[in-house]
Amino acid sequence: MAQLWGGRFTKETDQLVYNFNASISFDQKFYKQDIRGSIAHTTMLAACGILTDEERDQIIDGLNGILHDVEAGTLAITSEYEDIHSFVEANLIDRIGDVGKKLHTGRSRNDQVALDMKLYTRDEIIDIKELLKELLTTLHSLMKKHTDTYMPGFTHLQKAQPITLAHHFGAYMEMFKRDYSRLCDIYERMNYCPLGSGALAGTTYPLDRELTASLLGFYGPTLNSMDSVADRDYCIELLSALATIMMHLSRFSEEIIIWNSNEYKFVELDDSYSTGSSIMPQKKNPDIAELVRGKTGRVYGALTSLLTTMKGIPLAYNKDMQEDKEFTFDAIDTVKGCIALFNGMIKTMTVNKHNMAESAKKGFTNATDAADYLVNHGVPFRDAHGIVGRLVLICIDKGIALDDLPLSEYKEVSPVFEEDIYQAISMKECVEKRNTIGAPGTEAIKKVIEINEEYLKNLK
Q1: What is the pLDDT of residue 5?
Q2: So what's the pLDDT on residue 93?
């Protein structure tokens, strides 16, 4: 078919060149945004007297007809068209005749695609925020349920000090709250309308860019026409935020994989979020967690690719920028799928409270509290550290926990120990006496849960 830009050319584009240049295979994804932007542009043109009201109504009716037919499956978006813009415009002209040729007045594909990409990205940010809100709500529920589920806290993947599962989930709650906040920040920065910037230098038509921005829900028009068509910062920011979300999901997935292992048995994943082995009948594999962990690299790759694409591009628009779409579309789809599946996985998994508590006890996570006991009885901390280290060695040799070591053996190492050492190093006591805000004690955790309750109520 004839190209929208074909008047300057005397030869048909080579088919290989055409295919290489075309973006219809992926930019068809924002047909809704393209039509929505065209309706706003048409409305503005009529308000400025550039189109008549009758022309406006014909064009808008034609555009709505195209939208209806695409969504009904009676109009296919095919590779016959170079991009989604030419698909919409060509079909409009077919339907309403020469009036359809007036749609592109005062507009370039450069500011048109910039608008479409912004509208699409903005819509997707809203969807991702909703998915994150659902995940945050799940974590909040799990925190409320597990304020007395004792488990080991780790550093270097070594058991360190006792905490609660509520406290552990709370760490991820904070991460995903920051992720939600980043998406809000990106939305605020990007929500300015590039339409009306033309190819790079605006237009001689008396456009009302403020009206166009208002019709499309933007805060206002962008303020530099060159930057408007050349800007993909919002895509880079979004990919960076998505990469961070995936990093958090991946860390969490790694822990779920470890907790689900035969050696830990802290959790058991629901059958609906697990798979088996084709050869080993006993296997129940944490495939969803592993795939989330694996797909993180895919999103990182999208961010790196777009940064690399943009780094050498002079002002204003260049065809390289067409590469923004596939990276961004794929990363968005990947992250949305991962959040939804991860949320379902943790919502349905079974927690083995007994195994968690036993692991904390047998991992000597209360050793620091034993040292603190001595310090509170006048022993210098450095000496207390050494005393408890010797006690741990004795317990390792006997294959028992500090809780199970007889008082007589405590006293052989230090006569300061008395019967109340067992109360001091109980898992409950070790956790409950840590009640500064942000700590795992019940009082502290309940304050955080109250804060999170209010936070979730006020999420926009």
Answers
A1: 45
A2: 97
Q: What are phi and psi of 193, to 5 degrees?
A: -90, 125
Q: By three-state DSSP, how is residue 138 classified?
A: helix
Q: Give the per-residue pLDDT at 455.
A: 98
* CA angle (140, 142, 144) in 5-degree steps: 70
Mean pLDDT for each 10-residue chunk of the chain (460 residues)? 52 59 81 98 98 98 98 94 94 97 96 97 98 98 98 95 97 98 98 98 97 98 98 98 98 97 95 77 84 97 97 94 94 97 97 96 92 96 96 95 95 96 94 95 97 94
Q: How many CB atoms lie within 10 A of CB 14?
A: 10
User: Of 156, 272, 278, 408, which residue is the catalytic one?
Assistant: 156
Three-state SS for 420? coil
Catalytic residue (one of 25, 141, 261, 277) = 277
Number of H helices, E strands in the chain: 19, 4
Phi-psi region of 177 (alpha: psi -120 to 50; beta: other; left: phi over 0): alpha
**Euclidean distance between CA atoms 402 and 410, whole angstroms:** 9
Sole residue written with tokens 């992720």: 179
Told to judge if 359 belongs to the known catalytic residues of this protein, a careful annotator would answer no
- For residues 296 and 246, the answer to whether their CB atoms sit within 8 Å is yes
* Catalytic site includes residue 156: yes
Which residues contact residue 55 at a Cβ distance below 8 angstroms, ignoring those fewer than 6 apart? Answer: 46, 99, 102
